[in-house]
Amino acid sequence: MNAAVESSKDTGLVRVSSDKIGRLMDLVGELSLSVSETVNSPDLEGLELASFETAVHRLTMIVREVQDVATELRLVPLDDVFKRLRRMVRELERQTHKKVNLVVEGADTPIDKMVADKLYDPLLHVLRNSADHGLEGPEERVEAGKSERGTITLSATQIGSEVRITVADDGRGLNREKILKRARERGMFGPDEEPEPSVLWRAIFEPGFSTAENVSNLSGRGVGMDVLNTTMNQLRGRITVDSEQGKGTRVSLHIPVSLAFLDCIILRLGVQLFAVPVDSVAEIVRPTNGEVTSISAESYREMLKIRGNHIPVCRLDEFYNGATGEKPDTDLPEILVVFNTDTGEIAIPVDEVLDRQQVVMKPLTGRLMNVRASFGCALLGTGEVALVLDCERIAAGADI
Amino acid sequence: MTQTETATVAKAPEVAAISDVNPTQSDNIDHMYLTFALGGEEYGIGINVVTEIVGMQRIMSVPDVPHYVKGVINLRGKVIPLMDARLRFGMQEQTYDERTVVIVMDVSDSLVGLIVDGVREVLEVPPSQVDRHGQFGRGGSRSIISGIGKVGDRVSILLDTDVLVSDSEINIAAEVAQA
User: Fold this and answer.
1) Are A156 and A242 in contact (CB under 8 A)?
2) pLDDT digits (tens, 9 = 90+) for B32-53
3) Residue A206, burial from CB neighbour count under 10 angstroms (0-12, 13-18, 19+)
């Protein structure tokens, strides 16, 4: 038995260093790339290869399965992270002089070890905020007719390829007036603008945004949110907040189970390739005359009319280069891809829908770090590179 | 370093690892610079940041990047953004030809490619032969030029790669005039 691999006869478990698994994941990624490169080789074009096709089909099935198994190897239960947080709650109780009851649900939900390792700090930050700002002191709680002891529920569930981790407290809820005032001071909303709650709550995640009057050593410095935002971007995750005055606040982190592979639809717009996660696509339409209208009163905002609904059209070139506010001088591309997002449906025009494939994800680093509304780059079977779009962020940006 | 060796680097169409270019005089790579041509002038970057030199390949355009970032390439499974050196320096753009190459650099742990008119050679410039006069640019901001290297009657403009990959605006003509 060598040092790296310790096996135990009793449990049938093998301990393997995460470096080795990481190496395996990389290799599986390269394997799947070279398989698709081989299969899509231009040399094969126009050839009738019946038995080859069968073999290819089998090969791709196996590669996919190997991918799934390799991904599973790295999954650990979220409990690893939750356990550490549980210990922190006692510390928080001491520091805030509040009584906190921590309820944990779904601790056995599996998640990529790489993701789990990054979750502790952001979750701790959310938990701290709940204990420090969310929950009231014992007297205030009794006065409000609540039990003396505040409850924070930390729960996790897997929905499709996404893990949802929620931190919910039964405290005083977010203060709309205070947050709106602060957001207006920072110029995020106009003086008369009354944003929707879901839009307003997003403001609390802006760096440096804090309404806390007393900066404690726990929170209120507006720094922790930066950590939260940065980590969520790295993890291709997003945050939603829901709050009711007097009843409590619920912060949810939506995170993909695995970071290595993603099931995508590949789109082409001009010379650029984009990949979108399959789950996010609601439908693909080829609008006929009159189904897309342009509202001149709203800076020629284009809307797709479909089954009586109006869906805002978001042109990617306008999203990235800024809308001119004038009538677009180019025709709308022929195909519209409709996405389901938290802020409603949006339609993105593309020239061509190319393919559906499992792509190998590469994070945006260095010079590409500032590309907006993207999870990273996707390596396609053809060797090409596509930008993976985060439609949530496009929709959120298109709202403003 | 002889002319023949230089020519090998420039002609190698696919991959020429830097280790192939045999440093002759010294082991200290801190004073070694890879020189490249850009509009009749010679520039140098520290060899320690250069990971390889590759021929021009298919560039895939990406949105939301500065105009001088031409896109990305897939280099054996690594996605590498490419900067056009001419556009980066505010010079006239030029169509790529068979001499155009990409210098792949590893700066602050991320890879970035620099498209240049052609590479020349690996040059050793001891610190005593580097004029650091133009080290600080106008307004106190750090200059793209880390120094002017003089070897014999040749002059190489040595670049600060941290500034090169940063977001700051660069006007190389003005900087050269000042240096």
Assistant:
1) no
2) 999 998 888 899 999 999 999 9
3) middle
CATH topology of domain B3-178: OB fold (Dihydrolipoamide Acetyltransferase, E2P) (2.40.50)
What are the structural domain ranges in chain A?
A: 11-74, 76-256, 261-399
Q: Which tens digit of pLDDT belongs to each residue from A228-285?
A: 877 887 787 888 888 888 888 999 998 887 777 788 999 999 999 999 988 889 999 9
Q: Under 8 Å CB-to-CB from A226, ≥6 apart: which residues?
A: A207
Question: In terms of CATH architecture, what is A11-74?
Answer: Orthogonal Bundle (1.10)
Residue A134 DSSP label: I
Rounded (5°) CA angle A363-A366-A372? 65
Q: Do A367 and B64 touch (CB under 8 A)?
A: no
Q: Which residue of B has its CA nearest to A359?
A: B77
**Residue contact A316–B63, C-beta within 8 A:** yes
Chain B residue at shortest CA distance from A376: B79
Tokens in use for B107? 């700066």
CB contact under 8 A, A387 and B110: no
Q: A103: exposed, middle or buried (C-beta count within 10 Å: 0-12, 13-18, 19+)?
A: exposed
